[in-house]
Specification:
The chain is an alpha/beta fold. It contains 9 helices and 10 strands. The structure holds zinc ion (ZN).
Length: 277
């Protein structure tokens, strides 16, 4: 079933593609390579959204509409989201999005960005706060993605609360507006994490799920689909239309394994840092 056919089934049944990007880079570091998208491919993908007549929304827009904000969903809604806070979002994605007038959301791990709160965890060249402010001024919604990008479901209550509160405080302090949307690092959450995200003041949160987002998933578990370096134009169009997502699933299992390697490396580094301190 295509998005258009689903749309005719009534507002409650409408499925919305939420695209998850990470870095946009010509020459990404190996740790982010599979999940980074080449600038020319990103430009082509935004052209496809324009050709399909899609209307990009921010995360807060979609959640507000689904919460019953009075506004109807536009025809062919889509969300364009970026995780972590890579510098290429400012350098390569911003001009393309501005040209199309497309809304989008950037989820920042505040301890990964360049500047006073940098914990040294960033996997590639990260944004600085002037660049984040420039993105916000261009209409990007700036959401939270924790402070140091841990697997939140593995933290005790105190560390979990710290990761959420610190992230919110820093974004609020730097931008003058507290973030209202969140994206779970590694796409992981459980009921305890979702409750903590809500208690910290976030009104909605995005997971990863190889499926289009639907209202019935609830505001703290909206699914996203992954755009990766290998995603060609035909596959991209299928993702946006919600076709062939099952095929992506097999490859995402491999991706999860890749994440496990990154996680282990980071845990080792954290331990080393603790030892030094
Ligand atoms: Zn992330």
């Amino acid at each position: 079933m295509t998005v258009r056919q689903q749309a005719s089934g009534g507002a409650a049944e409408r499925a919305v593609p939420i695209l998850m990007y990470h870095s946009i880079a010509h020459d990404p570091r190996p740790a982010t390579r599979g999940l980074s998208v080449a600038p020319a491919d990103f430009t082509e993908q935004m052209g496809i959204l324009a050709d399909l007549g899609c209307t990009p929304l921010t995360t807060a827009d979609l959640a507000g509409i689904w919460r019953g904000g009075g506004r109807p969903l536009p025809d062919r809604p889509v969300l364009i989201t970026f995780d972590d806070g890579y510098e290429g979002v400012h350098r390569h994605a911003l001009p393309v999005l501005a040209e199309h007038g497309f809304a989008s959301t950037l989820f920042v791990s505040t301890g990964w960005l360049r500047g006073p709160y940098d914990t040294g965890g960033g996997l590639d060249t990260m944004l600085d706060w002037d660049q984040v402010r420039a993105l916000a001024a261009q209409g990007f919604e700036i959401g939270g993605h924790s402070h140091t990008h841990p697997q939140l479901d593995q933290l005790d209550a105190e560390d979990l609360e710290f990761e959420l509160r610190r992230c919110r405080e820093i974004v609020d302090g730097e931008l003058g507006t507290a973030p209202v949307s969140f994206a779970y690092p590694y796409g992981h959450s459980d009921r305890r994490v979702r409750r903590a995200v809500r208690a910290a003041g976030f009104a909605q949160s995005l997971a990863v799920g190889n499926a289009l987002a639907r209202r019935r998933q609830g505001p703290y578990a909206l699914r996203r689909v992954t755009v990766r370096r290998s995603t060609g134009p035909a596959e991209f169009e299928r993702l946006v239309e919600g076709r062939g997502i099952g095929r992506q699933f097999a490859r995402d299992r491999t991706l999860t394994k890749g994440y496990a390697v990154v996680r282990r490396a980071r845990q080792a580094r954290r331990k080393a840092t603790r030892t030094r301190v």
